[in-house]
Amino acid sequence: MLRLSIIGCGLIGEKRARALQSALLTDKAKLVSVYDVNSDKAAKLASTFGCEAETQMEALAARQDTDAVIVCTTNNAMAPATLLCLQNGKHVFAEKPAGRNTDELRGMRRAALEMNRVLSVGFNHRFHPALQKAKKLLDSDAAGPLMYIRARYGHGARVGYEKEWRGNPELSGGGELLDQGVHLIDLSRWYCGSLNLAFGRVETFFWEMPVEDNGFLLLQSPEGKARAFLHASCTEWKNLFDFEIFGRTGKLQISGLGRSYGEEQLTFYKMKPEMGPPDKELWNYPGEDTSWELELDAFVQTVAGKAHPDLATIQDAIEAVSIVEAAYAASRPLRGPHL
């Protein structure tokens, strides 16, 4: 039984706490304590999930009855919380992007290596069923050799969005490309392998904030055999997730992530020898989003010594955020009608 604590009791912290009580994890993991800078949030989460609320992060990190910590803070607090837990001998599962920049992430990697502890990063989209199924089909060569990826991910934000922590670069480290776009980068690397930035541009079109509301990327593999065209946006107005993988003999298209993004689907377009309209096979995934518990189960397995192949590492986060940073560097000064 892996004993876990959570730092950060907002929306994501609650999702992780709920995942730990799922049927998949109830006999494998136990939530023992939580902490948040807002003590009322911590007390509420502790009451809901039957654990203790700590009033000091240092006290949570030092607990003898905790083996691992899930860090669900704002981006600026990720590195300090993770380092504190690692230095206290805890394994850590940090939500994406795990920090504001690669300097912070590399410091976390060094600490994990020095303490010989597992440090995983929460790229939960890898564990969505449609994306998992697409990975299996691609790995089995069902769509032929991969040629390129085209993907879009976006939302419409909400009134006052530009005043939230994500619009403050001191707290967030970046805008939409670092927030949702990093998922697209990670998934593209998961399918393609190593990718480098060929073109990157971020813009602030609508929201009056000093970070971008849109990011546009062209990535390519070092040998030039695979490419990814990615667009992350918080001016989408209608929440959207659309991820297309093009092979030489077919296309895999994942659309929706459930809830406001629409029902999750995978469509396999199979090219005919004579070409023309392809055959089509469709899988629907209408149930609740199980990626949160599946990913934590992979973390539990990894801590137990059985590394899970789909669980993102701190190195995966470093590679993804490196691409974000390269796009930021290519876009300076940030352009937009309000800047």
Question: Brief description of this entry?
Answer:
By secondary structure, the chain is an alpha/beta fold. 35% of the residues lie in helices and 26% in strands.
What would you note in describing this structure?
The chain has 339 residues and is α/β, with parallel strands linked by helices. Helices cover 35% and strands 26% of the residues. It is built from 10 helices and 14 strands. The chain has helices at residues 11-20, 39-49, 57-62, 75-87, 102-115, 129-139, 169-172, 176-192, 291-303, 314-331, and strands spanning 2-7, 29-35, 52-53, 68-71, 91-95, 119-122, 146-154, 196-203, 214-220, 227-233, 240-247, 250-255, 264-270, 279-285. The strands form 2 sheets. It has an 8-stranded mixed β-sheet with strand order 8-9-10-7-11-12-13-14. A 6-stranded parallel β-sheet has the order 3-2-1-4-5-6, with helices on both faces. Strand 13 and strand 14 (279-285) form a beta hairpin. Helix 1 (11-20) packs across helix 9, helix 4 (75-87) runs parallel beside helix 5 (102-115) and helix 8 (176-192) crosses helix 10 (314-331). The longest helix is centred in the last third of the chain and has 18 residues, at 314-331.
